[in-house]
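BACKBONE STRUCTURE TOKENS:
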Amino acid sequence: MEIILPDFTKFTWQLNIALLATIFSIFSLIYNDYYIYYGFFTFVYGLIGASLLPAIETLFPYNILRNYLMVQSILTVIWIASCLLYAFPDFFMNC
């Protein structure tokens, strides 16, 4: 019986990030449950980035670089904000 592995080079880099976040979450379950949320946030970032970018490129096909920069910058800001809100909830709730 031969095991066939998928070709990971054909994935977008966002899906590779989601795959690494899944592996990180599995290891965080083994060692420390506190860090599973960071893996989950990164997994969601990768999945949304991989699905949102082709959708926006379909809607606006003439400016691909602007679409890419817009999607990635918005997702990166949301990812950093969600990680900071989880890491320091008292700081942001008392402002």
Observations:
- Residues 26 and 65 are 34 Å apart (CA to CA).
- The chain has four helices and no strands.
